[in-house]
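Team,

Forwarding the record for the chain on the shared tracking sheet. I've put the sequence and predicted structure together so nobody has to dig through attachments.
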Amino acid sequence: MDVNDIDLSLRFKHGIHTVFLFVDPSRPFGSIAEDLLEALKARYPSGLTTLLSSPDKTELPNNHLQIKFASPKIPADLSQGWNPLEVEEKDTPVSKDIKDNSILAFAFCPEDADEDYEPEFTVELPSFDEEMEEQ
């Protein structure tokens, strides 16, 4: 992947995972979702761990259109939750005022979900205690 000077570095979070992608700010979210799904399938073929306290995995979707995004309610405090990002496949980061080094949560919708389905954006943030236990 070629990285250009204008590319945005974006962090996509789900559960305990963070996926870092360089994104052209004028690229449609449909293409960004395709790249994200490709990276997830390459790195986590058996699914994503949502919570450290549970061995359950979130299965990856078959279609990039099943990926939904959210922005932090308060960018400086991710523990405050997420606002679903209403994006069409052709919307771009520029059109949604997404800046370099932004963090976005992502979730998966079932294939048969209707337009009223509201995905749950689960992001487990590391705590100081967890970081100390690892050392």
